[in-house]
Structures are given as structure tokens and as C-alpha cells.
Write a structure and sequence with these properties.
With 134 residues, the protein is of the alpha+beta class. It has a single domain, classed as Nuclear Transport Factor 2, Chain: A (Roll), CATH 3.10.450.50. The protein is built from four helices and four strands; from the N terminus they run H-H-H-H-E-E-E-E. It comes from Lentisphaera profundi. InterPro entries: NTF2-like_dom_sf, SEC_C_motif, YchJ-like_M.
């Protein structure tokens, strides 16, 4: 049996950090300090099929009855391959809004695609939430 040490696994978000010192902290309950950290941790949650984190970090303005199933459907359809952050506006510790433009590469039915998005984030209390597409 092949044993892989968790400490050696790089975080899928592209930060260059190991997963336990990066997005695992947020998936485990800590709040990202910036909009970009939230965006990266949400991408990582798609990679790791963590529907609970995705729902927990989605702004209440976006909530619909089908959210869980729509997310679960993407888990079946996509294999996320790479994330590149293209731009970030505001979204620092002291801000209450910010946006992050990114390019995510994924595979679906043997083909590779790119998803480019400029996402808006809002902070409520100490927690950032995904809000909408700019």
C-alpha cells in the first residue's frame, strides 16, 4: 500500500504552500483574511469535493434550493487542474468588499477547458463570502 504524507501535498489553490498550512485551515473552520484567500480556498474545495465549505462561504443573497445539487453535479462533471489568479482589487483585511479575477483550467469528458471569472466578495463580520460575478 502506498502511503502519502499529507505534509508533502501541495495545496491545489496554487499558493505554493502545503495543503495543511493553506486551505486546510479554512476548510477546518478558520476564516480567510482576504478575498483572494477565500477565492483560492473555494477553488480548493471544488478540487476536494467539499460541498459544505462551498455552501458555508456563499453569501446568503445567492442561496437557492438547488445549490447543493448543482455543486454536487459539478463534482461529477469536472476535474479541476489549475488555478491562476489574474487580478485582485480591494479585498484586503480592512476592506468589506473585493474582487478577484482568475482562470481555472479543468477537464470534462476528456477535453480541457478554461473558466475565466471575475468574482465579487463581501465581508460580514470576520468572514468573507463569495457574492457574485462582476
Amino acid at each position: 500500500m502506498l502511503k502519502i504524507k499529507r505534509e508533502r501535498i501541495m495545496c491545489p489553490c496554487g499558493s505554493g504552500k502545503k495543503y495543511p498550512q493553506c486551505c486546510a485551515l479554512y476548510h477546518g473552520g478558520s476564516f480567510p483574511e482576504t478575498a483572494e484567500q477565500l477565492m483560492r480556498s473555494r477553488y480548493c474545495a471544488f478540487v476536494k469535493h467539499d460541498v459544505e465549505y462551498l455552501l458555508r462561504t456563499q453569501h446568503k443573497d445567492l442561496a437557492s434550493a438547488n445549490d447543493r445539487q448543482e455543486i454536487l453535479d459539478t463534482f461529477q462533471d469536472c476535474q479541476w487542474l489549475e488555478l491562476k489568479v489574474l487580478d485582485s482589487k480591494k479585498g484586503a483585511k480592512g476592506d468589506i468588499e473585493g474582487s478577484v479575477e482568475f482562470l481555472a483550467t479543468y477537464a470534462n469528458e476528456g477535453q480541457v477547458f478554461e473558466h475565466r471569472e471575475n468574482s465579487r466578495f463581501k465581508k460580514v463580520g470576520p468572514q468573507w463570502f463569495y457574492h457574485s460575478i462582476v
